Amino acid sequence: MEKTLEKIKLLCAQALAQDKLITFLTGAGISAESGVPTYRGTDGIWVEGSRNYKPEEFATLRFFKENPAEVWKFVLYRKVSFRDLQPNAGHLALASTEVLLPNNFRLITQNIDRLHIKAGNTQAKVLEIHGNMETVRCSEECSMDVYPFPLDIGTAPYDAKMITQQWEQLKCPDCGSLMRPNVLMFDEYYNERLYKQESAIEAALNTGVLFVVGTSGATNLPHHIASTATYRGSSLVDINIADSAFTDMATSEPDKLVLRGTSGDILPQIKQLIQALV
């Protein structure tokens, strides 16, 4: 580990000397250490009555249009489960790293829990490529507006019934249609306005070292970000507890590195080595 960290330190020093970005791409693994259920595991399956809905089935716009109550019940259940969770050592290390690198830091996250913001990262440096659970928008896209999550919903203890008052609060203020969570669904496409696709690719093009943290690369854009960064000469550091779609990229050249362990253990060490450079 010590030898690997020394090599990472050298690569970061080279990137900063060239005025390149140090970029972190994070996924569910970093938030799992705070107690956030992983979306693709068995804890991500939604049970309604006697039926189990898998994420690939109910987390689609098509399913939302046909069964809005089931989707909103799951969203409220999940939002309440996020309510009291706190950032862990990995989140806090990234917040400190942003302070160390005010002009050379980017954080691209697949997570919708906003724990990075809660830890202290700034919205200007965080690209939430799957949206977040703190905002909603019109399901009919009557306008370009994104609204804060209704204050009175998703804060009380979870109740499986959608009461009249909740439905009223979930109406679009412009056209009266039902609001939807401002998150990317499985049958939707990335874009810049909502999911910062172009900003994420631009960051990848200007990255000197890309740290991939707690993500398997199962979705399109994260894999494209890593491919773009490495194609442009970025070093890639894979920080995961197991091999993933990024592992081959991380080991294909001498400058690609793999660190196995939890982000809560490894990211504070990365922060320390960057601190020694600035």
TrEMBL record:
Residue intervals of the Deacetylase sirtuin-type domain: 1-277
Keyword Nucleotidyltransferase assigned: no
GO molecular function: histone deacetylase activity, NAD-dependent; hydrolase activity; metal ion binding; NAD+ binding
Ligand binding (Zn(2+)): 138, 142, 172, 175
Top-rank taxon, per record: Bacteria
One Pfam family, short name: SIR2
Residue positions of the active site: 130 (proton acceptor)
Keywords: Hydrolase, Metal-binding, NAD, Transferase, Zinc
Organism: Microscilla marina ATCC 23134
Protein name: protein acetyllysine N-acetyltransferase
Enzyme Commission number(s) from the entry: 2.3.1.286
Class of the enzyme per the UniProt entry, highest EC level: transferase
